[in-house]
Amino acid sequence: MLMESVVATVLAGAVGVTAAVALVKAPFVSDLFRDAGLVELPPFPVEAVLVGLGAATAVGVLAGALPALIATRIKVIDAIRS
């Protein structure tokens, strides 16, 4: 259960970061910045990518670890009955 949640959140984080980079680099966004008077667009920082992926991984670890810890405390026969 822990591995599934970590893999799912890492994949979701990668999709989210990809979508954010695509949005920032989209032509209509650069046109909006130019219309607002901003001549040069700021680059997309690599630190933001790493923080986003790290946050997604941390959420996945917590979301998978808490149910896994609770499941280890339940007796097998009680888990089968419920």
Mean pLDDT: 84
Estimate percent helicity.
over 70%
- The geometry reads as rod-shaped
The Rg value, from CA coordinates, equals 20 Å
Query: pLDDT under 50 segments (min length 5)?
Result: none
Oligomer: single chain
The assigned structural class equals mainly alpha
**What's the β-strand tally?**
0
SSE ordering = HHHH
What amount of the residues lies in strands? under 5%
Q: Please count the helical segments.
A: 4
Report on this model:
The chain is mainly α. Helices cover 79% and strands 0% of the residues. The chain contains 4 helices and no strands. Helix 1 runs antiparallel to helix 3 (46-72). The radius of gyration is 20 Å and the shape is rod-shaped. It starts with a helix and ends with a helix.
Secondary structure blueprint with pairings:
Blueprint: H1 2-24, H2 27-35, H3 46-72, H4 76-81
Helix pairs in contact: 1-3
List keywords for this structure.
82 residues; mainly alpha; 4 helices
Can I get a quick summary?
79% of the residues lie in helices and 0% in strands.
